[in-house]
Amino acid sequence: MRSTKVIIHLENLKNNFIAIKKQCNNVAVCAAVKADAYGHGAIEVSKSLEDFGCDFFGVATIYEALELIENGIKRPIILFSLPTPTEIKDIVRLGLEPIISTKEHIVLFEKQCENQKKNLNIHLKVDTGMGRIGCPPEDALDLGKRIFNSKYLKFKGLCTHFSTSELKNQDYTNIQLDRFKGVINQLKGSNISPKYFHAANSGAIINNSESIFNLVRSGINLYGYPPTDRLTLNFEPVLEFKTQIVELKKVKKGTSISYGRTYITEEESIIATLPVGYADGYFRALSNVGTVYINGNLYPIVGNICMDQMMVKVDDKVKLYDEVTLIGKEKDQPNAESLAEEVGTISYEILTNIHRVKRFYNK
C-alpha cells in the first residue's frame, strides 16, 4: 500500500453541510460534485451527502453524471455546463436536468423527448452579469414561455451565477440580483413560476442572504474552504494529503538539491526525500517556497519538486518514515488556501489537481 494518500473526513463534510442548511434557513441544496467533488471523490462524497439529505447534485459533464447514476445516486443531477447537440440524446435517456439558454436548446430537447417519449426537467439560465453562459435578461420571458408551454419540457428552475459574491463589497452582486429579480417578476406576471429559483453560490450563501431563494448551489464551502474572508460559519477542511519520509541524509555545505541546482545548502543540512511530486498534483511552483508539516513543525521544501519526489530541509527531530502532512485540516498546518496563496491561484485548483493518489474515507 502506497504511503502517499488522501484522507477524506466525512464527519467534517457533514458538519459543513449542516452549517450551510442552517445558514440558508433549510432551503434545498445542490451540492457541486463536479471535478470529482473538487478532488475529494465524487462517488463517496455524493453517497454521504445523499445520506445527509442533500437535494440535488451538480456536475459539469455527462460522464460525471453517469458515474453517479451507475453508483446508485438517486437524487436529481443538474448539468451545469450547456449541452451540445451530440449530448442531447444521453441527457434525456439518463433523466438529467440540463441548464439551457437558447431557443435551439428547447427545440433539440423537445425533439429528443418526443423520440424517447419522455418528459425532461429544464433549468433556464440567465446571464445577469457573469458574462459566461445564460440568456440575456430581456430574452428570458420568451424562453420561459416556450418551456412552460412545451408538451415535453418541465420548467424546473430559473438560475443565474454571481461573479463577485465572495467579495465584501456586494454592489455588483446586488446589481446582478436585481436583474434576476426582474426576470422573476416578468415570469410571475405571465403566470409562469418554475419550482426553483437558484442564484446563491458559495460566496453568496455567506455574504448575501437576499440571494437565497428556495435552492442554493454550494461547492467549495462543502469542502471547508469558503471563498470569502467573512468567516461567519465554522467550515472544516475535509481533505488531508499525507506521505512519509523515504530517505534522510546529512549533506555538506554547498550541496545542490534537485534539478537545476536552484537550492544550494548554506550549511551542513539534513535533507528528507518524500515520495510525492507534481505528477501527484503537488504544484511544482511550490519549489523553494512551500512548507510541509512533520511532528508539529513546519519544514521548507528545498530544490525543484520532481515528478515523483521532493526534498525538504529538516532537523534531528525528524526520523525516517515519519508521517508528513502536505495539506492538513488543522490551523497550524499547510492547507489548500495557504498553498494557493503561495503559488498565486485558488484553493479550488489545489484540491482538484490531486491525481494518482488513493482516497481513504474516514467516517
Structural class: alpha/beta
Adjacency order of strands in the biggest sheet: 8-7-6-5-4-3-2-9
CATH superfamily of the largest domain: Alanine racemase
CATH C-level class of the largest domain is Alpha Beta
Strand content: 15-25%
Our count of domains comes out at 2
CATH architecture of the largest domain: Alpha-Beta Barrel
Average pLDDT over all residues: 96
State the distance separating the first and last CA atoms.
Answer: 20 Å
Could you name the CATH topology of the largest domain? TIM Barrel
The DSSP helix count reads: 11
Q: Level of helix content? A: 25-40%
Please give the number of β-strands.
19
Domain Alanine racemase C-terminal: 238-362
EC number: 5.1.1.1
GO biological process, one term: D-alanine biosynthetic process
Catalytic activity: L-alanine = D-alanine
Description of the structure:
- The chain has eleven helices and 19 strands.
- It has two domains: 10-223, Alpha-Beta Barrel (TIM Barrel), CATH 3.20.20.10; 239-361, Beta Barrel (Lyase, Ornithine Decarboxylase, Chain A, domain 1), CATH 2.40.37.
- It is elongated, with a radius of gyration of 24 Å.
- It has 363 residues and is an alpha/beta fold.
- 42% of the residues are buried.
- Strands 8-7-6-5-4-3-2-9 form an eight-stranded parallel sheet. The protein has a five-stranded antiparallel sheet with strand order 11-14-17-16-15, with no helix packed on it. The protein has a four-stranded mixed sheet with strand order 18-10-1-19.
